[in-house]
Design goal:
Elements (H helix, E strand, L loop, with lengths): L1 H18 L7 H47 L4 H30 L2 H33 L9
Helix pairs in contact: 1-2, 2-3, 2-4, 3-4
């Protein structure tokens, strides 16, 4: 995404410079180039802020999903309860690790932003997959919560 904005900015600068080849450089050209780059940076910053806000909201929704699974298994007993508690602990540990990546993401800038965002997205995808697997186990155990779920 950053590359796209840089390319747009460079294209604009090239066009502006090409239009003034027969003229001596003026303050207007320099100002226009600066304005283009400022606009590109502002747009990239807005996208970054929107992504962070959206992911913050999704993280809160994910916490609620974990709480729903915990409530579902609260009255379970025996092996089903043990397995549910292990699964919930694993999900929470994975979520906590992702929260650290999110903190890194919020403070990342420049080239580090792209790498940090990719690492966060990969962690988010892994957490979603772990949740989907856990939910399937919880749903299959919900019909008979006193049985062993460690198939």
């Amino acid at each position: 995404m950053k590359t796209r904005y840089v390319m747009i900015g460079l294209t604009a600068i090239t066009v502006l410079t090409g239009c003034n080849q027969d003229k001596t450089p003026s303050a207007d050209t320099s100002t226009a180039s600066t304005n283009v780059m400022d606009n590109v940076k502002a747009e990239a910053s807005q996208d970054r802020d929107k992504f962070i806000a959206a992911m913050d909201k999704q993280r809160a929704e994910f916490d609620a999903k974990i709480d729903e699974l915990a409530a579902k298994s609260a009255d379970w007993q025996g092996d089903a309860k043990i397995q549910a508690d292990k699964t919930l602990a694993s999900l929470r540990a994975q979520r906590d690790a992702l929260n650290k990546k999110f903190d890194d993401l919020k403070s990342a800038t420049g080239d580090a932003w792209d790498k940090t965002k990719a690492a966060f997205q990969s962690g988010w995808d892994d957490l979603q997959t772990a949740y989907d697997n856990a939910k399937a186990k919880f749903n299959s155990s919900a019909s008979n919560p006193g049985t062993n779920t460690s198939n």
